[in-house]
Amino acid sequence: MSYNFLVATWGDHGHLGPTLTAAQQLRAKGHDVRFIARADARASVETAGFHFATWQRKPQISPIARTNAPLQYAFDHLLFGPAAAQGADISDEIRRATTDAVLTDMPLFGAVLAAEAEHVPCALLSPTISIRPLPGQPPIGSCLPAPSTPEDRVAVEAASNRFVAVMNEWLPMLNEARASLQLGPSADVLELFDRPARVLIAMSAAFDFAPDFLPGNVRYIGPLLDSSNWSKPWISPWSHGDRPRALISFSTTNQDQTEALQRTINAAGSVDMDAVATLGPALEQTTLHAPDNVTLLPSAPHDAVMKEASLVVSHGGHGTTSRSLAHGLPLLVMPFGRDQGDIAARVEARGVGLVLPPTATETEIAAAMTRLIREPQFLIAARRFKDIIAAEVSAAPLVGEMEEIVRAAANA
């Protein structure tokens, strides 16, 4: 049976990719899918063949953050602040066209509220580590390793409690958004994650740190690896030979990565290998200098490059990391922020690569690249994930989960 799904997403380029992949999986099974997103996502969504709507209401954000911490800024301007406006827009969209279920990016809390108000089943999609703290798992942003001792478990529990306590500072704003949609107040912000029919974590369970248990509505569905429609075709600059090859790729968005990228390119010049560095949209107007063994490209399809690469150097974004492991490639991760320190902790714990700060020197970066080339344990560990991720991607469990929440709602 064919269903009608509304996908709500918040970004473009790297942030939009997982929801586009999810939509393509749903469409491949005969379902109708449409999007609501930022205006600058229109071209990407319509090029992929999906109907597009954008936000109409301007958020009335009332910032309460006391610091410039990125997470608190996100609470104000992405998660809680716009929830009422986005919820009203999504309610309008649900009423405008048949909607059997909503699939929404994790940060769009307004979509969860709108689905509840309109009595439509909803799935929250996390294309990285879950924002919802899971029992026994270090919370996002903590950069903590998996707990292995009683002391570690105390530290993880304390970090999770702090995370929830900070989120609950925005509970009044959340309840204002709920009231605007004629919903009763919540007693705790965690109800946001308990009310939806599903919380779908789009990463490999084998790569993530295992929680003690999963809440009943939480599922791991494996990574959603998109094909970037903004990347230019790949013409390999590498001649045939047995020299190692590296893909160097930092974030598609601006994270002040220019200096770190230039140091990484310089470091590659001192290693006996060839490399390609993709700049991405954030740095397309930036002038960088490369040694003879490094080719600079505005963009390139990473799957094609990785088929010829020996290792990947990145900022530790979940998409790039998962794609690297899908190709069985070891990683050098230099996290800048967001969830990248958490991803780096998992890269280190799983033995699939090395981690350096973005302030690392050229000598340190070159030494890490050399280790990844010469020491086989990193390649062996990365290759173990190749079959695991291939099986997860092939199974496309997201589709079954979305179909199930529609059937369950119809039978309720």
Overview of this protein structure:
With 412 residues, this protein is α/β, with parallel strands linked by helices. The chain folds into two domains: 241 residues, Rossmann fold; 147 residues, Glycogen Phosphorylase B (Rossmann fold). It has 15 helices and 13 strands. A seven-stranded parallel sheet has the order 3-2-1-4-5-6-7, sandwiched between helices. The protein has a six-stranded parallel sheet with strand order 10-9-8-11-12-13, with helices on both faces. Strand 2, helix 2 and strand 3 form a beta-alpha-beta unit. Helix 4 runs parallel beside helix 7, helix 9 packs across helix 13 and helix 11 crosses helix 14. The longest helix is centred in the last third of the chain and has 20 residues. The radius of gyration is 21 Å and the shape is globular. The mean pLDDT is 90.
Q: Briefly, what is this?
A:
By secondary structure, this protein is an alpha/beta fold. 41% of the residues lie in helices and 14% in strands. The chain is built from 15 helices and 13 strands.
